[in-house]
Amino acid sequence: MPQLNPNPWFFTMLLTWLTFLLIIQPKLLSFISLNPPANKALPTIKTTPWTWPWT
Length: 55
What we know:
It comes from Eurystomus gularis. The protein is mostly helical.
């Protein structure tokens, strides 16, 4: 079965992961977010309990 032969695909996968880890990831992590998240107070939501008909 040719699908089980890892020879041509293992090197391709390894090269892809190394490219991502060594080249693409540092470039992506160097970007500065233009819109940083603000520390906002979350509004408290007042909920009423559900009234079950059999209680």
